[in-house]
């Protein structure tokens, strides 16, 4: 089963935008994400509808953040994407009258619900500002390692 990486991709785009002075075009964002500008425009239109980004038309136009990074959580972006499925596994439903299947599914439903609630709570605890701070800390470490010759990619 293919993983849904939209949340990760949108967060990636938003952090690129935060690092860019002024509006940034769908084409530039698409190159950064190795995708088609149409995909970026579709995603951004949904985020614009939620008030997270804005667009400017014409020469020098493009997309920009519409609110402070500290005010946007990963949960906010997840919700703006339409709450895609969090888990790739699910219940077997081939024999709904089977008591064994019912018992298994009841146990799994509880586990799935608990896991989703925990994940959603965690997404609500992390802001885009926290992601940006982590990026900047990693960038500083990489720069420091490059200056001292200590860094290496694994």
UniProtKB/TrEMBL annotation:
GO terms for cellular component: cytosol. PROSITE patterns: HTH_RRF2_2. It comes from the Bacteria. This is Rrf2 family transcriptional regulator. GO terms for molecular function: DNA-binding transcription factor activity. SUPFAM superfamilies: Winged helix' DNA-binding domain.
């Amino acid at each position: 089963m293919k993983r849904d990486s939209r949340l990760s991709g949108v967060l990636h785009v938003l952090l690129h935008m935060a690092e860019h002075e002024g509006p940034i075009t769908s084409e530039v964002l698409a190159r950064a994400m190795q995708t088609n500008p149409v995909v970026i425009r579709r995603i951004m239109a949904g985020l614009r509808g939620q008030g997270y980004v804005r667009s400017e038309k014409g020469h020098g136009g493009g997309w920009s953040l519409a609110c402070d990074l500290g005010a946007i959580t990963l949960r906010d972006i997840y919700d703006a994407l339409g709450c895609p499925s969090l888990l790739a596994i699910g219940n077997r439903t081939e024999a709904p009258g089977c008591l064994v299947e019912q018992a298994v599914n009841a146990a799994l439903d509880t586990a799935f619900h608990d896991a989703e609630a925990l994940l959603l709570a965690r997404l609500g605890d992390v802001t885009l500002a926290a992601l940006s701070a982590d990026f900047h800390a990693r960038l500083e470490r990489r720069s420091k390692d490059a200056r001292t010759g200590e860094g290496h990619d694994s």
